[in-house]
Design a protein that fits this description.
single chain; 360 residues; alpha/beta; Quinone Oxidoreductase, Chain A, domain 1; Rossmann fold; 2 domains; seven-stranded mixed beta sheet; six-stranded parallel beta sheet; 10 helices; 15 strands; 24% helix; globular; binds NADP nicotinamide-adenine-dinucleotide phosphate
Length: 360
């Protein structure tokens, strides 16, 4: 039998620290081959990829391995090797007694149509694969979005660090309020603490409308409005949920309430361009608390025990919305990785590699 073509996206060139990743420069789609009947599984499983997630933090993995500044945070993708990320697939052969042919699984997959898990590559960042038992009425892709990594961090950080503080808070600011995390935070806050006024920003007018629909009270486009002017007009901010860092954080520092909370969730604005924080002295002058969070790390793992029982009903009744930006086929995979960093995605970026329905 002829080997099967296996389109695979390789990471082939390291961007500079202040350079945007580019589908045509830093990635290459190659037609590898895999014999689906005889390929050695080495005790693992052969997976047909259905969906792949594109995540902002992958930008940290597209770095020069000699850059040790993020070494303890996350390992780099090796040059010449496939990009890997969270994904959903179907088991088509198994050497592993935990998985049967036909199982739908979620875990860390190569950016390719087929992959062997755990596979022979130097995957320094494999997280355990497990079976996905989706709730009826919820598409698989939602388990990469609001029921996946972005939803997990939003829920766990909110429950751990925001829940108590928000009772006495008047105002919260959410940067990147139309991102997957930002949308969850706005909708969850409106549900749990309706007394709080939510200020939110995003980079297009269409996203500004989305934030309004999510329930934010004051919305603005940070590309056309001055953040400092908007926050001084609509502040002070008691709780800042920061998905962006950089200049946005700087402008918010001077508009925080005394003893306010900054929940540092992400720094997407400085992943491809540097910004030196000017107003850090406001942390002690205003007696602020700054809480950084990383999904599943330390205490952040604890609220996961109630995540699905709490959030699945909210997704089913539409209280928590899932907006997706779908990319079709491996040809669009590199674009999915890059769009997050220019704001071209309108929702959770998911690559649809193969529709499960096509398989039946
Ligand atoms: N700590 C954790 O464990 C954890 C887990 C998941 C996510 N996060 C972080 O949470 C944030 C949101 O993640 P997500 O998955 O929800 O993102 P997402 O849905 O993929 O959306 C990313 C959005 O970020 C915005 N953005 C890109 N470059 C920007 C810039 N220079 N300045 C301001 N905004 C910019 C863009 O929207 P605009 O058009 O509005 O610019 C883009 O659409 C990211 O910082 C991510 O790293 C953290």
């Amino acid at each position: 039998m002829q080997p099967t073509k296996n389109p695979t996206l390789l990471f082939v060139s390291t961007p500079g620290p202040d350079e945007q990743i580019d589908p045509d420069i830093h990635f290459e789609l190659v037609n590898k081959e895999l014999d689906l009947k005889t390929a050695c599984l080495g005790g693992g499983v052969l997976i047909k990829t259905l969906l792949l997630s594109s995540e902002p933090y992958l930008r940290y993995r597209f770095r020069n391995p000699s850059d040790k500044s993020d070494a303890g945070f996350i390992p780099p993708v090796q040059l010449g090797f496939p990009v890997d990320s969270a994904g959903i697939g179907k088991v088509i052969r198994s050497d592993d007694p935990c998985f049967q042919v036909g199982d739908i699984v979620i875990g860390y997959l190569d950016y390719s149509e087929y992959c062997i898990y755990p596979g022979p590559g130097p995957h320094l960042f494999k997280i355990p694969m497990h079976k996905l038992n989706p709730h009826p009425g919820i598409p698989y892709s939602v388990y990469l979005g609001v029921l996946g990594f972005p939803g997990h961090v939003a829920y766990c950080a909110w429950e751990l660090y925001v829940k108590e503080r928000i009772q006495s808070a008047k105002r919260m600011y959410v940067s990147s309020g139309a991102s997957t995390v930002g949308t969850f935070v706005i909708e969850y806050t409106k549900l749990k603490a309706p007394h709080v006024e939510i200020v939110a920003s995003a980079g297009t007018d269409e996203k500004v409308d989305c934030m309004k629909k999510s329930g934010a009270d004051v919305v603005f486009n940070y590309r056309s409005e001055d953040i400092q002017v908007m926050l001084s007009k609509h502040g002070p901010i008691d709780i800042f949920w920061d998905n962006v860092g950089g200049r946005t954080l700087d402008m918010t520092l001077v508009n925080m309430s005394e003893e306010g909370l900054i929940l540092s969730c992400g720094n997407i604005s400085t992943m491809s361009s540097s910004h030196e924080i000017q107003n850090y002295d406001q942390v002690y002058k205003r007696k602020l608390t700054v809480q950084g969070v990383i999904c599943y790390a330390g205490d952040m793992a604890k609220p996961m025990s109630t995540f699905f029982q709490d959030v699945v009903p909210l997704v089913l009744d539409g209280t928590i919305s899932h907006r997706e930006h779908l990319y079709h086929g491996m040809e669009e995979a590199a674009r999915a990785l890059c769009d997050l960093h220019t704001g071209a995605n309108m929702g959770k970026a998911v690559v649809v590699v193969c529709d499960d329905e096509d398989e039946e």
